[in-house]
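Subject: design request, 137 residues
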């Protein structure tokens, strides 16, 4: 973030919209730069209820071996809803693509071994990283 003249921003106020219990990194950084922040938690993620045994059976029959995960809640949810047996036999054997070092560390801590980091959480970045990783000569 480019440092801005403090005199020009002392009266600037920013409303920061985020999900319930969202990370505070951007808020702290902006405050450090002199902005006045009003934080509004405006949405909440609610996980879909799945027949996990049926879903895992389907995913395994399709020979799914690669996952793309863009948030920590999904990493934790995957681990929590899939049985220990399926975690060992299938889930943690999957290659997983995540965004950034923070999700990399979380995925490793939860049990994944083959964790690939994409720099950005956009389609082009993920597709490029997946191609680089899966189609090396």
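Subject: RE: design request

Done. Sequence follows.
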């Amino acid at each position: 973030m480019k440092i801005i003249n403090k005199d020009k921003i002392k009266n600037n106020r920013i409303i920061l919209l985020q999900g319930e219990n969202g990370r505070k990194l951007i808020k702290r950084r902006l405050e450090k730069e002199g902005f006045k922040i009003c934080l509004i938690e405006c949405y909440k993620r609610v996980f879909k209820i799945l027949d996990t045994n049926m879903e895992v059976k389907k995913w395994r029959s399709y020979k799914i071996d690669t996952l793309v995960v863009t948030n920590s809640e999904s990493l934790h949810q995957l681990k929590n809803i899939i049985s220990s047996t399926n975690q060992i036999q299938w889930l943690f054997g999957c290659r997983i693509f995540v965004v950034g070092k923070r999700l990399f560390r979380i995925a490793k801590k939860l049990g994944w071994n083959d964790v690939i980091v994409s720099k950005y959480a956009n389609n082009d970045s993920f597709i490029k990283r997946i191609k680089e990783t899966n189609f090396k000569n």
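The radius of gyration is 19 Å.
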